[in-house]
Amino acid sequence: MTFPDPKKFQLVVAGPNESGDADFLEVGPAAEFDFPGVAAGAFYWAVDGGHSKTNIGAPPSKVALAGPNGSTFGISSFPAHSSGEVDAALDESMSATDDDGDAGMHASDTIDYEVVISGKVDLVLPGGKKRTLVPGDLLVMAGVPHAWKNPYDEDCVYVVVTVGFNTPEVAS
């Protein structure tokens, strides 16, 4: 089975229109990213600051993981023979950890739900722990340091949903 380019998926959104009736909503373009040799893809939807019937989100204006109480939805890929170094890809939603001296190690304040739909990729955790993910594998990434390595001959394409950690309330 061949999947389209991660930046060419069609987003269909069903939600309340301006009158509050169920409808298919017109949406804008995705926030695309392409870091050659590292990762490529697009975030198609994002919710900022909490989910509700009146805050269902919109296409994101920038490439970023979910902020506090928010979420993002997208498609990503790791190109064949990529090393996972993330320096070029990091924004304020991720932080480099360089665990084990690996420039690809990073973490975020999100819980990520991911589904591999084609290819395969190695998920590496500190201490040399590694799992190879293949089509159909489901991953829950709970904010721990990790790196992605694709030493294989095929790009790995996967669906990703990120959910931002709740911001704790400060006692007065």
TrEMBL record:
Pfam families, A to Z: Cupin_2
InterPro entries per UniProt: Cupin_2, OryJ/VirC-like, RmlC-like_jellyroll, RmlC_Cupin_sf
Domain Cupin type-2: residue ranges: 112-161
Protein name: Cupin domain-containing protein
Organism: Arthrobacter ramosus
